[in-house]
Specification:
Blueprint: E1 5-11, E2 14-19, H1 20-41, H2 47-78, E3 83-89, E4 92-97, H3 104-131, H4 137-159, H5 167-180, H6 183-210, H7 216-243, H8 265-276, E5 280-285, E6 288-294, H9 295-298, E7 315-317, E8 323-324, H10 330-340, E9 344-349, E10 352-358, H11 359-373
Parallel strand pairs: 2-3, 8-9
Antiparallel strand pairs: 1-2, 3-4, 5-6, 6-7, 9-10
């Protein structure tokens, strides 16, 4: 979903990230309000004031999205749901959960907090806009906060549409889940509605474009995102349900291929990488695990230097990023692989190498399980 992102701060222990795509939205918001909207609302002001008002709306939008998503996160933590962080991206923001909510009630409470927070902000911004309805700078402040009020009200209403992954879709899923007791069935219904809603937005946007209303392009992009996110959400739920509760030791391969730290890099490439086709190899020295050697680190060494360097020059020590306990949940291992973009993890217990867990083995098991147990 995301491209390159940067971390801007931490609130209540939750990291706030901004995806680079959000900067595009911020720029468009500033430009459209400074050039088109506010010059028509208040005439005769200097261009610098209109630009300042555009920045004010962009800053208010940033605050509003963070406030909305933080409301989700705070309630989620109260319900025992681990949160990785919040990312602002092209079409808004998302709270990144490490796991599915444990119950319909917890999902309902976590989800409803977002729209309620937006409505609260809308009320606060409306009050500020009313208080500053005076000539001069008061009117400027009033116009900015008046639009932020409408923006938050619209955000709350749009998010309540019962189409997953919008908040309304999650609320619908929690109600269906509580009714039937099946998260998989409820997710299937909610994501199907989300996918259908995405198609509606795409078609409506195309009709607007045909009529030379170029704002329809955004409808198309938002529809594509909603449809993609709905489909991915269902697949992620299947993955989570398929792997949760399964220990890593069930999938690990014992007696993996290992390499010594003194092996020449040219020999490492020819006799290990090209022979076994792995991207990571455990490094053993005198039978003791010391870390791993990866092809990503190997690429940092120029080819002409391979003959003069050894595996110790690309060595990475053992850490939480490249190891996993054999008793750990397989879903935890998959999450770690995704977060670190790794295809293999060393399975380590009390400092001893027990085996290797590969992404391919996890996905092969998952594919077979879904095929055999498909309802």
């Amino acid at each position: 979903m995301f491209t390159r992102r940067i971390t801007i701060c931490r609130l209540f222990g939750i990291a706030i990230h901004i995806d680079m795509s959000w900067l595009l939205i911020a720029g468009l918001v500033i430009w459209s309000f400074a050039v088109n909207y506010f010059p028509q609302e208040i005439r005769g002001l200097p261009a610098s004031v209109y630009l300042l008002m555009g920045f004010g709306v962009a800053a208010g939008l940033l605050f509003s999205i963070i406030f909305h998503e933080m409301s989700h996160c705070i309630v989620a933590k109260q319900q025992g749901i681990a949160i990785q962080g919040i990312t602002l991206f092209l079409f808004g923001g998302v709270a990144e959960m490490e796991e599915e909510p444990p119950s319909p009630k917890s999902e309902f409470l976590m989800t409803i907090a977002g729209p309620l927070a937006s409505l609260l902000l809308a009320a606060v911004f409306w009050l500020i806009a009313r208080l500053f309805q005076t000539p001069g700078w008061g009117l400027i402040v009033s116009k900015v906060f008046g639009y932020l009020m409408m923006m938050n009200f619209g955000l709350a209403i749009f998010n309540m549409i019962p189409a997953f992954p919008l908040d309304g879709g999650r609320i619908l899923r929690s109600l269906l889940w509580g009714w039937k007791g099946s998260l998989r069935w409820a997710t299937g219904i909610a994501t199907s509605l989300g996918s259908g809603f995405g198609i509606i937005l795409i078609v409506a946007g195309m009709l607007l474009v045909v009529n030379q209303q170029w704002g329809g392009i955004w409808w198309v992009l938002i529809g594509m995102f909603v449809r993609y996110a709905a489909q991915m959400s269902y697949q992620q739920m299947l993955v989570r349900r398929g792997l949760e509760g399964e220990p890593v030791r069930r999938f690990m391969r014992e007696n993996p291929v290992t390499v010594g730290p003194s092996v020449n890099l040219r020999e490492f490439v020819e006799n290990y990488v090209y022979r076994h086709h792995f991207k990571m190899f455990p490094v053993l020295e005198n039978g003791r695990l010391t870390g791993c050697a990866t092809t990503s680190r190997l690429k940092e060494i120029p080819i002409e230097q391979w003959n003069g360097k050894t595996v110790s020059d690309i060595f990475q020590p053992c850490s939480q990023e490249n190891t996993i306990d054999p008793g750990a949940d397989a879903m935890k291992a998959l999450t770690r692989m995704n977060r670190n973009r790794a295809s293999r993890l060393m399975v380590v217990e009390n400092g001893q190498l027990k085996g290797i867990l590969s992404l391919k083995d996890l996905l092969d098991f998952l594919s077979l399980k879904i095929e055999l147990e498909e309802e």
